[in-house]
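Notebook p. 47: complex prediction with flavin mononucleotide.
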Amino acid sequence: MDTIEAIKSRRSVRAFTDENVSDEVITQILEAGRWAPSGLNNQAWRFIIVRNPGTKIELLKLTNYGPTIKIAPVLIVVFLDKDHMYNYVKDVQSIGACIQNMLLTIHSMGLGGVWLGEILKNKEIVNNILGAPGSLELMGVIALGNPVHKKMISERKELDQLFYKEKFGKSQ
Ligand SMILES: Cc1cc2nc3c(=O)[nH]c(=O)nc-3n(C[C@H](O)[C@H](O)[C@H](O)COP(=O)(O)O)c2cc1C
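Predicted complex, structure tokens below:
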């Protein structure tokens, strides 16, 4: 899939069939994540893969998007490793790039995924459930699987709504 096409056609997928996603496929998705750019090439992203139904039942209680967690065969839980941080904002931005790389890869493989951020309100409890050390700060959860195909639409602001004029730009 062409990059621009992948970027524009990717949609957040919140409903999945009961078909599983193999470890090999998850590895390819993580590979795309780890090749994201990061400030000073710091690569402070860390991951926990969740497949266990019992663990998912605990996690789904922590967000309004529980039904998506319940139905997704796999979750990629993404953390910032605060023990290997160089700049909070730039490390967090880099993890955003990492997550987007993974979402685009998921989409380009014909799978579907969604970035879950609302669960961050319970980030300490997520760490406890997963047995993650306190040095890891939850950045997001990707729920993924085989999409229940529906035509999904999304909207974006028009480009001209996003511009401020250059101060010393040429007068027309
Ligand atoms: C930081 C962040 C947090 C998000 N949190 C959630 C979430 O908790 N639950 C959810 O269903 N979607 C979540 N999303 C997905 C957005 O709702 C979605 O990307 C947006 O509505 C645009 O739709 P699209 O991805 O289909 O183009 C999140 C996206 C981002 C980037």
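Notes: DSSP finds six helices and four strands in the chain. Residues 3-161 form a domain with the NADH Oxidase fold (CATH 3.40.109.10).
Next step: compare against the earlier run before touching the bench.
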